[in-house]
From TrEMBL:
GO biological process, one term: cellulose catabolic process
Protein name as annotated: Cellulase
Domain Glycosyl hydrolases family 45 active site: residue ranges: 24-35
UniProt keyword Manganese, yes or no: no
Species lineage: Eukaryota, Fungi, Dikarya, Basidiomycota, Agaricomycotina
Catalytic activity field: Endohydrolysis of (1->4)-beta-D-glucosidic linkages in cellulose, lichenin and cereal beta-D-glucans
EC number: 3.2.1.4
Single GO MF annotation: cellulase activity
Amino acid sequence: MMNKLYFLSFLVAAVSAQSGSGKTTRYWDCCKPSCSWSGKADVTSPVRTCNRQGTLLTNPNAVSGCDGGDSFTCTNMSPWAVDNNTAYGFAAVNISGGNEGSWCCQCYELSFTSGPVAGKKMIVQATNTGGDLGHNHFDIMMPGGGLGWFTHGCPAQFGSWNGGAQYGGVALVKGCQWRFDWFQGADNPSVNFKQVTCPTAITNVSGCTRRDAPKAQAPAQGQVSSSTQAPTPSKAPSSCGV
Ligand SMILES: *[C@@H]1O[C@H](CO)[C@@H](O)[C@H](O)[C@H]1NC(C)=O
Ligand SMILES: *[C@@H]1O[C@H](CO)[C@@H](O)[C@H](O)[C@H]1NC(C)=O
Ligand SMILES: *[C@@H]1O[C@H](CO)[C@@H](O)[C@H](O)[C@H]1NC(C)=O
């Protein structure tokens, strides 16, 4: 009986741990992320959202800015470099065999397997999903990425939209520079991925931790601030607004 129970719980753990190979795309649509609604998964609190002024909203039921409301993606959800080979960020995901109950606020370590970033790793927390995502698909949030940049969400948050600097502020410009610097302008690289415990540096930004998560990991590389450790941007493309 004990053996059988042990085996069963092992099987459940093995089945629920998500890993495999997958694809990436990039987006930043400014809309309220789906994991910001309450009741999506068993989490400490839904993913934070911000209003047009960048102030944190406390009401998880606030209507998305993309549906005429005042709830938008917070600009500090831009990706950032921890060191040359590690970055942190957020993504919309769709992973085989799962649903938002298993994805929301789960973290995944992505090991890039193609393009200029092959060999680098990025840990993303799932904050969103999307009907246009296929299986094992990570749509990584980065300012300037994807069609959403130009459509109604970002203009609703920031007013007329010229690429972000003027309206989105420093966090968006830095996130956009990350794309051409740490990420080397990679175009939808493929990945191997595995489920990992979220670093506190990530959950501190999202405000969301899964209740089934083991205790948070020690921050990578002693968490030296990105301003001292991240490589200096070599390019400041005009698409970043600077
Ligand atoms: C990061 O990469 C750049 C350019 O390849 C190099 O000059 C720098 O020393 C690296 N920094 C670290 C912390 O490895
Ligand atoms: C995930 O992707 C599959 C395949 O494209 C799709 O059938 C499914 O509806 C998606 N799930 C969600 C929650 O979007
Ligand atoms: C997370 O936030 C807590 C509370 O503000 C802070 O003490 C801690 O240093 C932060 N951790 C990281 C890794 O940023």
